[in-house]
Write a structure and sequence with these properties.
- The protein is mostly beta strands and 98 residues long.
- It has one domain (4-83): Sandwich (Immunoglobulin-like), CATH 2.60.40.
- It is 11% helix and 54% strand.
- The chain contains two helices and six strands; from the N terminus they run αββββββα.
- It has helices spanning 4-9, 92-96; strands at residues 16-20, 24-28, 30-36, 40-45, 48-63, 68-81.
- The protein has a six-stranded antiparallel beta sheet, with no helix packed on it.
- The longest helix has 6 residues, at 4-9.
- The N and C termini lie close together (9 Å).
Length: 98
């Protein structure tokens, strides 16, 4: 996957969030995914860190080159954070492919 230096070089893409019936989430402007499981997904966008919580969450599509993320499951909340404290230890894929 991409190194942190490469992530910074990606030009900011427009950030958009579309939630359909609290069951499908389509996000653009995604730079990296920090962590994910069936209850929580944390990712970085051009507008800051985002945490999604819910049940049976699954990433159906992740394309970091296009900055697109599609999640399905029961979406309970979506929370933005301007701070990237979560990134101090690196992203999920950075740890996985180190």
């Amino acid at each position: 996957m991409q190194k942190e230096e490469e992530i910074r070089k990606i030009p900011d893409r427009p950030h958009r969030v579309v939630i359909e019936s609290r069951e499908k989430l389509n996000v653009t402007g995604v730079k990296d995914v920090d962590s994910f499981n069936e209850a929580e997904i944390i990712f970085i966008t051009t507008c800051g860190a985002v945490t999604i919580t819910g049940e049976d969450l699954h990433i159906n599509r992740l394309n970091l080159e296009d900055g697109q993320l599609i999640v399905e499951g029961k979406i309970q909340s979506l929370d933005y954070s301007d701070h990237e404290e979560q990134r101090q230890s690196g992203g999920f894929f950075k740890k996985m492919f180190k």
